[in-house]
Amino acid sequence: MNTGVLDELVSALRCLPSVGPKSAQRMAFHLLQRDRAGADRLARALGDALTRLHNCARCNTFTELEVCERCSSPRRDASQLCVVETPADMLMMEQTHSYSGLYFCLMGRIAPLEGVGPKELRLDRLLERAADPAVREVILATNFTNEGEATAHYLGEMLRARGLAVTRIARGLPVGGELEHTDIGTIAQALSERRPA
Amino acid sequence: MNTGVLDELVSALRCLPSVGPKSAQRMAFHLLQRDRAGADRLARALGDALTRLHNCARCNTFTELEVCERCSSPRRDASQLCVVETPADMLMMEQTHSYSGLYFCLMGRIAPLEGVGPKELRLDRLLERAADPAVREVILATNFTNEGEATAHYLGEMLRARGLAVTRIARGLPVGGELEHTDIGTIAQALSERRPA
Ligand SMILES: [Zn+2]
Ligand SMILES: [Zn+2]
Predict the structure, then answer these.
(1) What domains are there in chain B, each with its CATH number?
(2) Is the N or the C terminus of chain B less surrounded, counting Cβ atoms within 10 Å?
(3) In Å, how far from its chain's centre is CA B93?
(4) Chain A residue whose CA is closest to B36
């Protein structure tokens, strides 16, 4: 006896990660009964984001431009290229204020169990980016999870085979830890203690 | 260095209940990188729900009609009026298949700590609905949480003062329990064991 429109909203909310049927129902109820302005804002924010955001041609993060502001900035050190898994990880790196190089955002990691291999990650774009003669060092800053480590290992082999100097941020993070959930100081330390990969 | 559009999406996602800054960031990333179709569907579902859904003039639940299908149905027993907190609770009651009366959905409960009193809940609409001469019994099916109990107590006093027969579903639910998280059988039992309130 839910109406179709309400059912559809509850279903659509389930496209959000880790939102099950009960949560989706609670969210729909909250939005419709308590926060219609918020629901309207969310609908418009989604529409805007879909229309205007795409992947930066250089670093692969989300941007409204063809090449993002960071990649275009003359103040960044183009000799260093730091590889991260997600835009959130990139933000964490920036907040350490101990890195002024450029980035490449994988938008994921190698995860064989989920069917994500080198091809699905489109690592050819990273190779192309790293082939820029300005790049002197590639810093691998994937997570220290099993998948992040496997990704770093794979990238290390791949990039060294092309004659690039490759380093890995130090294991200052706890085993199984993720950048996104680590304090800035620990990330800064891990960055300063990076070692050859 | 997030773009404005991305920041706005992350902020807007925080209007969802129990979504903090990290979850919002993860959701935005997921939608933009992995499920653009889902994001588009969600944006449209929100828009449709906002445009088309409002509160039923009789039972106060969400509907696209002036009076919802259930309230208009000749097959429902108009002598019984069951009061629930949310549309989700109403669905749970329906799934017991042991109730064929009508409903009134409070869309909340009395919660003094959150500034929700009888006035904020607009209990005048319930009084008006219960004043329908067809109504012979009002069944209170608010949750057995402290707030749900307080609400039932308040409603019991208020409705009895107007000469209505008021019952409360039986405490078959565990103390502190919520309808939404209870199995159908227990709810059915609690319904059949309702007692004078
Ligand atoms: Zn860029
Ligand atoms: Zn109705």
Answers:
(1) 3-52 (1.10.8.420), 76-168 (3.40.1360.10)
(2) N
(3) 11
(4) A50
